[in-house]
Amino acid sequence: MNNPDMPLLLELIVTFFLIAGAIVALIGSIGLARLKDFYMRLHGPTKASTLGVGCILVASLLNFSFLKGGVSVQEALITLFLFVTAPVSAHMMAKAALHRRLKCSSRTRTGPPDQ
Amino acid sequence: MDIGLLVFLPVLGAIASLLTRLKLPGPDHVQIHALVALITPAICLLLLLSFLPRIQSGEAIVYSLSWIPEIGLTLAFRLDGLSWLFATLITGIGCLIIIYARYYFAGKDTAGRFFVLIQLFMTAMLGIVLSENLLFMLVFWELTSLVSFLLIGFTWSSRDARRGARMSLVITGGGGLALLGGILLLGQIVGSYQISDILAATDTITSDSRYPLTLSLILLGAFTKSAQAPFHLWLPHAMSAPTPVSAYLHSATMVKAGLFLMARLHPAMGDTELWFSLITVTGMVTLMVGAFVAMFMHDIKGLLAYSTISHLGLITLLIGMGSEMAMAAALFHLVCHALFKAPLFMMAGIVDQATGSRDMRNINGLWKSMPALMLVTVIPAAAMAGLPLMSGYLSKKMLFSESLLVSAPHWANTLIPVWVTIAGLFSVAYSVRIFHNVFFNGKPVDLPHWPPKKKPAGMLIPMIILALGSLVVGLAPQATYDAFIHLAVMATAITRLPLYDFSALADARVPAMMSVIAMVGGLGFYLARNPLFAIHRQLPEVDAKDIFEQIMLQCIRFSQTLVHRLENGSLQRYLAFILVAAIAPALWMLIGYSGWRGPSALTEADAIGIFGAIILCLSALGVALFHHQRLPALLLLSVTGLFVTLAFARFSAPDLALTQLSVEVMAVVIMMLALSFLPQTSPKESGGGRVVRDLGLAGLAGGGVALFAYAVLTRPADTISGYFLANSVPGGGGTNVVNVILVDFRGFDTLGEITVLGIAAVAVFAFTRDLHLKERVASAGTAKGFAEPHPVILQMISRMVLPIALLVSAYIFLRGHNMPGGGFIAGLVTAVALTLQYMAGGLEWAQERMLTRFRPLIGAGLLIATATGLGSWFVGYPFLTSAFSHMDWPILGEFELATALLFDLGVYTTVVAATLLILANLGKLMTVAGPGKEVG
Amino acid sequence: MNRREFWLPRPLFSLLLAVLWLLMVNSFSVAQMLLGLALGVFIPFITRAFWPEQARVHFLLPLLRYFLILLIDIVRSNLIVARRIVWYTDQLTPGFVTFPLELDDDFAITILASTISLTPGTVSAHYDSDAGTLLIHALHVTDEDELVREIKERYERPLKEIFQ
Amino acid sequence: MNHLMILPIVIPLVTGAFLLLMYGYNIGRQRSLSVASTVLLVVLAVWAVLQADVADYTLYRLGNWQPPFGIVLVLDRLSAIMLLLTALLSLFCVLYASRGADRAGSHFHALLQFQLMGINGAFLTGDLFNLFVFFEVLLIASYALLLHGGGRARSRAGLHYVIINLVGSALFLLALGILYGLTGTLNMADLARSIANAPAADLPLLKAASLLLMVVFGVKAALLPLLFWLPRAYSAASAPVAALFAIMTKVGFYAMVRVFLVVFGLDQGAPANGTVMAWLWPMALVTLALGGIGVLGAASLRTLTAYMVIVSMGILLAALSLNDQKLLAASLFYLFHTTCMTAVFFLLADLIGRYREHGYDRFSIISPLSHRWVLGSLFLVAAISLASLPPFSGFISKAWILRSSSHLSDYLWLWAAILVSGLFIIAALSRAGSGWFWRPGECTIKPSPPLDSARSSTVAVMIAISFSLSLFAQPIMEYVEAAAELIYQPSGYVNAVLGDYVRHSGEVSE
Amino acid sequence: MIATVIPFVIGIFCIAILLNLYRLAIGPDIVDRILALDTLMINSIALIVLADIQMSLGILFEAALLIALMGFVGTVAMTKYLLRGDVIE
Amino acid sequence: MELVIAITLGVLTSTGVYLILRARTFSVVLGLTLLSHGVNLFLFTMGRLTTGSPAVIGLAEQYTDPLPQALVLTAIVISFSMTAFVVVLALKAAVELRSDHVDGEDPNEDRQ
Ligand code: NA
Ligand code: NA
Fold first, then answer.
1. Has residue B770 got a pLDDT over 80?
2. With an 8 Å Cβ cutoff, is C16 touching chain A?
């Protein structure tokens, strides 16, 4: 798998994306674990994880596009898909949370309309 | 053949009677019925008489016709002295009974049924006595049990009749089963069921180690049939049958079958200590019990019934003694008994019909109103009492003299004479009683009909004939014996014997004294009857039927409790049983097994692997831990599924990963649908003990699986898979070997698999069709306004997702043959995408926008797959043979066409349709669609 | 609807699908092109019932520009959010903001909502179609009106230009 | 290669699929299709029986792949009789159901056809995993059929039945896994060969697998303690379904014969099936005993019949576990008889039930009954046959079993169990019959509904078959003896299937 | 270089997933659990892609794609369930 | 690695078995699903485990045993069908028997 004739630049980019992705995703999960109330936790994954995984996918895209020759489009597709669906998931979960009257943290300035 | 005719003529007669009954139903054709019924017995009788000369020449006529040699069952008949004697009794008395019945049933429309049954019964009896093959005999043996069941239950409306019938069937039928066992053993010992062979194999039989068992089983059969104590209970209840039936059963048939069997097998099995003790003791007990109970019976038929029992005991006793003379006496008495018991029953019947009662305490002094009956009754009654010049007298005397000749064992040689004398005394007593008590003994006490109805004189004819018969026997014993009985005795004797010498018997003094004692004692006993009755009345009243019913009920109750204790409807218990059954034997066998660790080297564990394993275990444990909160448990379950997927992906099984993943989500969605109608939590209801037990079972099961996995993993692989890898491309035309296996090498499995999926879906459709759910889980304390059914944003996105997903599934479908993917996964992707539409837009909305008939789609899918398989026929190859070709067309470029793709299309269709059918029907449960409205 | 709209409800989309197909199969043989086109036509045709109304996309370029901005914002916002999550967890002052919509096209609204969810510390929690408002939860909000104005400026206006 | 051989599986599949495709068909068309297909199956089964008589083993290589790589169907005498039995039984069930029972729910006929596909497949396949698949087919179909008609009793019984069988399937997969892991093959013949040549260290593991399989098949074949689902399930099922289920337990028995005597029985010196037989023997005896007791205590005719099924399975399994060729032949004959008769009784219970004013087939309830004579005679004759009294096939087969077991060491247990249970059966049936047909003052229902001649004649014909079984016993016995003989020559099977194929190790290309 | 980096990246994602599991376990509300599961799914996409890169096979995209799709559908199903007490109506 | 896998399989099986022995249909369904996971993995494992060698000709230089994968695929589908079926059946039973106890309301009720 260690492809000798992969240009250093490309390899650097791939590596960068890998690390960046990992860190971003990790932060997202940390947020999920640490933040006070549900609505705050919601922010972590919807952005960070999506982006983080996105980075990984880009890395993979570059990697395989080089290895296989041609464009390995599946990753792009996945990324696109993630970015399209993640907000909706978040939206739905937020609705559910509102529906179930989840408590907001004490620092919340203005709560949801009916609370 | 004509012997066979003897047996089967009565069947024809029965059929004839049946037809006449159907043609001429109703009470007013009894005469015709009787005439029809009389034909075949008469013919049989004549046939038998025509055989007499050949029999007297000492010949045993055997006719045999193969039926099922596999089990040694042949249609074989044997007519020798013994069977001739019995057959004659059966047919002869049968004729008389029919004549008697013609009057007895006058004006009853049950007559037809009687005549049918009685002839069937005759067949059965003739079959027993004429069979040469013991198995064949057993057929008739059981037939008698069945027909007697119907005869005793003849007046089914009465409770007694029903119970009596059941009782006799269970006892005699049970005996029949024992007999079956005995006969089979005998057949094993001898190597044949032909009586001729068996009679020739005495030493083989008696010396065989299985002899005792064999003998006991056979005797069990004989005793139950011949109402030997303690199986005598059923016989008295045969009297709840119409009198002709009782007369026939008691005198000539049924009860005599057992005696016949003993006599028949005596040469082969007799002459041993065991034979002697088993039979004599039983005979003695029966003799005494019967005689004693008979004395205290007030019911005429009851008295006669018990007297029969005691006489059977007597004959059994003689057979037990086993000497030639004893056999002679036995058969002689058997004939006598038949001759006097039948008329006595007929008398009872007449009295019964005339006075409407059978209770001797009420029936008194009938001599005035029924003198003829009295006169006819004198002879049989005297014969039963054993008064001088009567047949009974001789047979008693023969018995007494035989009892004196008993040498070994010691206990017998003094006990038996005394015993039989006392029994004789009793028999005198009850014989005197039945005569005197009925015809004299003062005035009748409030009888239903008084003065008694006139009964037609014709009823007396059979009685007279029989009475004369026993008179003849009494007066000319030697002649009768020589003419008819001696041949029978020869057939039952082990050694050839001289004719029985009645003149010698006449001179014998001790027996004479014994009979005198019996007579005098008996008379005295009768005179002192009233105080004795008084004493007897103190004794508790026992009805055998009740005892029997009680026993039956006890058995039933026991079985019910046992069954309920085991099969208590608790699934948990059943599953525990199954697990134990699965674990225990293997555990037992593998205790101390050391070969778990196989030869091949262990591979070192890598980080990801361990990590995945840990999460998998954690999530699984989490499910078990949180299963009381169902939704969280469900989430954890999908984590488990996800990591199973990852495991597949990790260990080079992309197809499995894809499948598992799609299946997982569908399964979770379905469970969630179901969960919306179920409680959200499971109560904690298992007790500590139960939990411990289950943990134990779970631990054992898991440990077992782990051990096996370890054992296999540490062994080198040696499989047939090399073939698949080698032939996938050349033979199957695909590089994705797994897919080629699925659609080609083992396409048949896949066909079955999608059939399962299809059936499951149709089944769900079928049994949710009429299911309508009222209440859904109430989500309490929720805010209003956020929960619109179909959020706009969700809808918009789902619409965009759908085409993409379809494209992807098309892609997965087409690449399947060469790359991970295939029809099944593609189908699930499509299904999931459409499910998303269901969720976003609602069932109705989606139903309006798509092909809504899923069942035909399932059918189509299955048909496509099957048709692909059948296609290969037309090129002469077996089902599911695949064909493919790589084409490289000028402009189009290189592409492949494979029948496997068509097969996969069938899979795809079925999967999509089945999955959606299930979802749609789950979804409709709460919608306005409601019950009845078919979805899909 | 005319015949074209019946058989080919979304020509652009069909083309997109075809291209996507070619990229996926990663082969540009004529056979695959035909197959891709076939699917591109076929799939929208069978799914048109699910997506009845025509999206009124007028300018394709502005849309692309919009997505470019969006991508940058996503990256930027993630860095901000990340910093907050990791270091200033307890100084955060979250809050709900009601955003009055000027858009009317459901599709546009969806895009806006998604945008909001993907960009700095905001999640669109609920769309009230009657009131025409979006309920937004912000991870850290100091001035609601500022937030609303920014969203209107940065995202809603361009969307209005594209879908009008 | 004779294509007729695949038809017993394909015909019901196609029929079922077609019935789904034409989901709108009115019941009449569905019935005629279903009947047509089952009649065809009977014809095919007859062909199979004759074919199996001509050639010991007829192979059908699916996908034209050489065994053990592809799935192969193997037709020998045993599978031929099972096919015939299934076909006949299903024909009667379809006819009976077509009198209205099939209307009680959806897709009765389609499901029944699928069930037949599964059963026939299980009888024909020569591949262990394929056997698993067909088990699943026939199971899922049976779940659906069991629930046919709805009702709480069926839901409950069905739930238990389904869950228990799912566990059974899991065990089946485990056993398959072990076998594949150790032998690397799934074809029965190849398995037999590999097991016979298995290294000593692996033998205990293989035997453990066989014990697992015993449980798997035992669940289907009603082996104690795996049978408790059966009484409720069978008595809850609608009459024709229950009648068809009479064959299901026999599928389990068949699987045991095939797997234990062929797959695990190749090494004649020390066959690997010793352990499983040793465990099977006592369990089967207890099964038999429990069955007899259950018969005595049954509260309704269907429950009684369900326990009769258990009794018969006890006899069959005990006979199998004694592992003797003659005995196997005898039990095959008995299998034919008992399947017919238990089916008859499930139908009879329904038939009588519909003409009783109330209480259906419950014993405890006294109720007026119309058509006492016809029903009574049917019941009497059927009872005689079921209680294996002469002259019906029951007597012959039982006698044969006893006879052919009497040379074995511990035959007495078997005899005692069989004879005593026989007595129980007589007692129970006489109670039932006398209670129903002899109760006093049972003025028949006014106006008495006309007797359904089709239903009753169906039952009558089935009884007649049982009788003819005893009339023409000899040829049948010779056939089953030949079948048993083949079963006890596993090497013949293996050679016939594998031909000259020999697996040399390390075939996995590295 | 990639080869050396990947194990660490994988490790990081494993940690992320553990964090998700932690949230999944403690809740407190079911919505939190759903969120955790959703995140976990997304992270496992990365995991699978990384494994693919590591093994340099390039056959696990479909798996990843499906996880994305299925994760989305699953989340929608669960949230709909919470919102409406029913998934399809 | 073998040991890790073995233990994992054991845990999956144990949890599954424990759950199918619970008294509520839903728990039993969970248990059956876990059990089938365990069993499928077991069957899969029986082909021995290799990484980076999928049975796709020409993709890698060595191939894993494809047969168990095919078997497991079939098993997955079947167990999916069965799960779907049993879930709906459990639902039906729970509604009709007015209790989601595996034995319904009254396990010993005599019925017609
Ligand atoms: Na008197
Ligand atoms: Na049966």
1. no
2. no
